Amino acid sequence: MPIMRLSSAVLILGLAIVAVYPLLGPAFGTAPVDATQVADAPWWLMPVGYFAAFIGAAGLFIGWARKKEKNR
């Protein structure tokens, strides 16, 4: 189903943003990352990543529910 592929891509994109964000510190991760260090990336990047992952997960659930209902 196209909704499953699209949702998977959005979920992976969102999780990739969340996973890469801490590595965007000074010199792109060459310095050790600790609690006092703030990433050089824009502040709004993390919420966008979480929102994209949420949309992807919701789309996967909707696609799964539609597929399950169709097989009844």
List keywords for this structure.
72 residues; mainly alpha; 2 helices; 62% helix; transmembrane
Strand content: under 5%
Q: In terms of structural class, how would the helical and strand content be classed? A: mainly alpha
Could you give a short account of the major beta sheet?
none
Q: Determine the mean pLDDT.
A: 82
Query: What is the percent of helical residues?
Result: 55-70%
Uncertain stretches of 5 or more adjacent residues: none
Shape category: rod-shaped
So how many helices? 2
End-to-end Cα distance, whole Å, is: 17 Å
Number of domains: 1
Keywords: Membrane, Transmembrane, Transmembrane helix
Transmembrane segments: 45-65
Protein name: DUF3955 domain-containing protein
Organism: Salipiger abyssi
Describe the structure.
Keywords: Membrane, Transmembrane, Transmembrane helix. The chain crosses the membrane at residues 45-65. This is DUF3955 domain-containing protein. By secondary structure, the chain is an all-alpha fold. It has one domain (2-70). It is built from two helices and no strands. The protein has helices at 2-20, 45-70. Helix 1 (2-20) packs antiparallel against helix 2. The radius of gyration is 17 Å and the shape is rod-shaped. The chain starts with a helix and ends with a helix. The model has no long low-confidence stretch (mean pLDDT 82).
Task: Give the gist of this structure.
The chain has 72 residues and is an all-alpha fold. The chain has helices at 2-20, 45-70. The chain has one domain (2-70).
Please outline the helices and strands.
Blueprint: H1 2-20, H2 45-70
Helix pairs in contact: 1-2
Transmembrane segments: 45-65
Protein name: DUF3955 domain-containing protein
Keywords: Membrane, Transmembrane, Transmembrane helix
